[in-house]
Write a structure and sequence with these properties.
By secondary structure, the chain is an alpha/beta fold. Helix content is 33%, strand content 15%. The protein is built from nine helices and ten strands. Strands 1, 2, 3, 4, 5, 6, 7, 8, 9 and 10 form a ten-stranded mixed beta sheet that branches. Strand 9, helix 8 and strand 10 form a beta-alpha-beta unit. The chain is globular and about 55 Å long. The N terminus is likely disordered.
Length: 362
C-alpha cells in the first residue's frame, strides 16, 4: 500500500535528515577542530558549580581567551576572561601566580583591554564578570529582576577553585592577588578581607572603600535604581555618555536598608571595607591603594583611601597609598580623574611590584 503523499514526504525528509546527521558526525570525526593543530588553549573541565556554555568560548590567541559559564549562584550566563603568560605552554612544569581583576560598574570583562600591564608574562590574569552593579556581594534580595545574585560566593567559592583546577597556578595566598577599580576597588579590598586565606596581595584603585560615607551609599542606590543621571551628576563623564546599569531593582536589594536607624544598615556595616574590624584581617597582606583627587568622584575616593590608610596605620598594618592628585606625578595622560587614563598607568606601577612579591615568595 502506497503511503499518502504527506507521509511519504515526511519519511523522505526524515531519511535525508538522518543522512545529513551521519555525514556531519563523520565529518566531525574526519576533520580536526578549528585551531587543533595550532591552538594551545587549555581544556577546561566543569566543576565547583560552574558549567561551561557550549560555543561560549572566544579565543583571541593562545594566551587571551574567554570562557562563558553558568552557575546557580548568579543568574547568567557570565564570562571569565583569561590572560596567560607567553611562556605558559612552553614550560609545562611551571606553576604561575594569579591576579584577579575586578572591573568597575557597569563594566565587563573586556574592560581589561584598557590595562595593558595586566597582560603580563610573569603571571596569569583572570577577569571574572562582576555584573553591571553586582558590587561583589551576596545580595540581600535574590528575587529581583536580575535573579540570583550571590556574586561573592560565585567568585570566591567557584571561580577561584575552578581556575586552580584547570590552570597550572601556584594555589596559595602568597602567589594570588586581587585587584580592582571603582566598584571593583571596593570589591577587591572586601575580598582580601573576607578571604585572607586566598589573597596575599590587594590593589584597590579609586574604590568606594568607605561605606560609612553617604556618597558611596548613594552611589550604590543610584545603580540599583538605574539612575545613571544621578551618578553622572557627580562624575566627569561627558553628557550623554553615562552607561546603563541594567534593570531597576529595589533600593535595599544589595545591602539592605542604607539608613542607620536601629541597626537597619547592619549589612552595610558588616561589608564595609573601611571598618577597622575588617581591615584588621589584612595584617599579613600586601596592600596598595591608588586614587586621584581632581574630579568630584575622585575627591570622594581620595577621602576614603586616606581614611583606610589612617586606620591601617593605627592598626600597625603596612600599606602603600598613592594619591596622584591631578595625575601629573603618575602619567602625562592622567588628569587625576575617574578614568582608565589614570588607572592604566597605576596598574603599570603596581604590576611589577606584585610580581616581585610573587617571586620573593617562591
Amino acid at each position: 500500500m502506497t503511503p499518502p503523499p504527506s507521509r511519504a514526504r515526511h519519511r523522505v525528509r526524515r531519511a535525508l535528515s538522518t543522512a545529513a546527521a551521519a555525514v556531519a558526525v563523520l565529518g566531525a570525526l574526519a576533520v580536526p577542530p578549528a585551531h587543533a593543530g595550532a591552538s594551545q588553549v587549555p581544556v577546561f573541565r566543569d566543576g565547583f558549580g560552574l558549567t561551561q556554555v557550549a560555543d561560549g568560548s572566544v579565543v583571541r590567541s593562545d594566551t587571551d581567551f574567554t570562557l562563558t559559564v553558568t552557575s546557580a549562584e548568579v543568574t547568567g550566563p557570565h564570562r571569565i576572561r583569561v590572560f596567560l603568560p607567553s611562556g605558559y605552554a612552553a614550560d609545562p612544569g611551571r606553576r604561575w601566580p594569579v591576579t584577579y581583576f575586578l572591573h568597575g560598574g557597569p563594566g565587563t570583562v573586556d574592560d581589561v583591554a584598557a590595562v595593558p600591564a595586566l597582560r603580563s608574562d610573569d603571571m596569569i590574569t583572570v577577569v571574572p564578570d562582576g555584573g553591571r552593579k553586582g558590587w561583589y556581594a551576596d545580595w540581600v534580595m535574590q528575587n529581583t529582576a536580575l535573579g540570583a545574585a550571590d556574586w561573592e560566593t560565585f567568585h570566591l567559592e567557584q571561580v577561584v577553585p575552578f581556575i586552580d583546577a584547570n590552570l597550572r597556578t601556584a594555589p596559595d595566598r602568597a602567589h594570588r592577588a586581587v585587584s580592582g577599580l571603582s566598584m571593583g576597588g571596593s570589591g577587591a579590598l572586601h575580598y582580601a578581607e573576607a578571604r585572607p586565606d586566598l589573597f596575599g596581595h590587594v590593589a584597590a584603585l579609586s574604590g568606594g572603600l568607605d561605606f560609612g560615607m553617604a556618597e558611596f551609599r548613594a552611589a550604590v542606590l543610584a545603580t540599583e535604581l538605574n539612575l545613571p543621571g544621578a551618578w553622572c551628576a557627580i562624575s566627569s563623564a561627558a553628557p550623554g555618555t553615562c552607561a546603563d546599569y541594567g534593570p531597576y531593582v529595589d533600593s535595599d536589594a544589595v545591602f539592605g536598608s542604607p539608613y542607620p536607624v536601629l541597626g537597619a544598615d547592619r549589612v552595610w556595616k558588616a561589608y564595609d571595607p573601611a571598618a577597622p574590624a575588617n581591615l584588621s584581617r589584612l595584617a599579613n597582606t600586601g596592600i596598595t591603594l591608588y586614587t586621584g583627587d581632581n574630579d568630584l568622584i575622585e575627591s570622594y575616593t581620595a577621602r576614603a583611601a586616606h581614611t583606610v590608610k589612617a586606620r591601617l596605620d593605627q592598626l600597625g598594618i603596612a600599606n602603600r597609598l598613592v594619591d596622584y592628585g591631578n595625575g601629573a606625578s603618575l602619567s602625562p595622560a592622567c588628569n587625576g580623574g575617574h578614568t582608565y587614563a589614570c588607572w592604566a598607568p597605576a596598574f603599570a606601577d603596581w604590576v611589577p611590584r606584585v610580581t616581585a612579591a610573587f617571586a620573593a615568595a617562591a
